[in-house]
Design goal:
Layout lengths: L2 H23 L8 E7 L19 E7 L2 E9 L4 E11 L5 E10 L4 E9 L6 E12 L4 E3 L3 E7 L1
Antiparallel strand pairs: 1-2, 2-3, 3-6, 4-5, 4-7, 7-8, 7-9
Amino acid sequence: MSHSRLRIKTGAAALAAAALGATLIGGTGQATAAPSAAYPLSSCIGLSPNVVDLPYNPTRIIVADYAGKTYLTTEFSSLWGYQSAVRLDLRNLQTGKRLNLRSDRRVSPPYVGTHQLSFPTSRIGKGRVKATLSSVNRNALWSVPATTCSGVIVIR
């Protein structure tokens, strides 16, 4: 066997042993995150301020938890672009804790706009949380309030 083949086989064996050792010890040495999950929002369709456009329709809240923080994301689309201001009211259904978050974002076509909100998980607590989303969307000419919608999310 040539020296280069021996080095390749030795390196592959060392890499496999390291991966097995990391798995047996309990991971990769990095902080682990709970998997993200998407929760539906009810009756969230509204008029775009551009009128001839896709409707404003954030259909879900994506929840991710990592290192003591919770990250929430909603999505909306537009063919022409506009500014969207959101207020997200959260209420923990077990503890009654409340939290109000705000985001002001622009969607620029052809991209999907997102509202990304984060906070320390301890501010609302873990468990089932009612989320109520209120939006006002605007372009250069006018502002259009969207319907208020809600859903229940789970914070882990």
